[in-house]
Amino acid sequence: VDLDTAKQELEEFIPHVRNISDSSIRKMAGRDLARFKQFKKQGIAVKFGRFSQKENNQIRKNVEEFLLITGIDSAEKLLFTSRYPEDKETISRLKAEHLFCEKLSEGIPRPWRLIYYRARKMFDPNNYKGRYTKEEKEKLKKYHALHGNDWKKISEMMSRSNLSVAMKYSEIKSAINYGPWSKEETQKLRRAVEEVIRKRMETENANSLSSSEKSHREILIDSEKLYQKLPWTEIEAKVGTRYWRQCKQKWTTILTNKMTKGQQLYRGTKGLQAKINLIKRLYEMKVEDANEVNWEELSNTIGDVPKAYVQAKFYKLKVSCVPFWQKKTFSEIIDYLFEKKLPELEEKL
Predict the structure, then answer these.
(1) Domain named Myb-like: which ranges (predicted)?
(2) Domain that holds residue 157
(3) How confident is the model over 22-26, as a mean pLDDT?
(4) Are 46 and 36 in contact (CB under 8 A)?
(5) Which of 87, 127, 147, 241 lies at a CB distance of 3.0 to 4.6 Å from 161, suitable for a disulfide?
(6) If DSSP states are collapsed to H, E and C, what string results for 36-74?
(7) What is the Cα–Cα distance from 227 to 223, expressed in whole angstroms?
(8) Residue-wise pLDDT tens digits, 318-337
(9) Cα Rg of the chain (Å, integer)
């Protein structure tokens, strides 16, 4: 398939395809186009965003089956072949012979590259090493000064995953403040969020709304824009002294106070009732994966709050109440909370 035809055909499945480099489009034409057309025949849309538990399980199954077929003895060797130079030639030959690309992406309606990145994240033993020590942070700064953004090289030197070292460096690269927010920082955050929301609205509304409609939209900023997905790395750069995750958490706190008029929703008997309501609603939903939860709807169980607030409260609940929660599926976590924790909370209330 020539490049223009590939772009045209892929655009049906990936609307932003024209922003992708020509070499990537050529690869996608080979690895993805036939798969996407097959999924379309089955009425299945191409997906982006977070991987579901079902998709993660399919990746595990695909990797395990490929290891059985080829006799390669570990997922690390399969997905991080460069770590094993003595076996590289044999593994590369087996991957080509047994159609590794097709096998890895089997049954998953996503671009191959995203499936491959997800598999590498899941099976990299260097990805689950816990918090960075002070010494590791100093090493990371030193290696970055020597090698720049060569995360592959730095990850090998630190025995951490590429993604882990890149994210940690973005967190420590500047004079990030970890203490309480100052008044000046909070004002910077408010201004930064306001700027990105207004810029987004101007882009959306520039040619489509009359001035009277625009003023009507201004009134709806709170409910429509304030806790949709915001470009947090851009906001981080504008604030300057805080990491993006801190900005997001602080903004959720500001919004929650604004929307609840400063009431303490998660304290005392109100807090117990909120936890009870949250567990009951999650149990009633009978969903298999956190991605299927309508967090917007769930926020009503606590009050008029942003969905990020509810997600944070649920995270706190599972971490503090569910033993070995990392090894449990989402539905197992909910069942445990419903069967074991809920009676305790009701008694306490």
Answers:
(1) 124-172, 173-255
(2) 134-173
(3) 80
(4) yes
(5) 127
(6) HHHHHHCCCCCCCCCCCHHHHHHHHHHHHHHHHHHCCCC
(7) 8
(8) 888 888 887 778 888 888 99
(9) 24
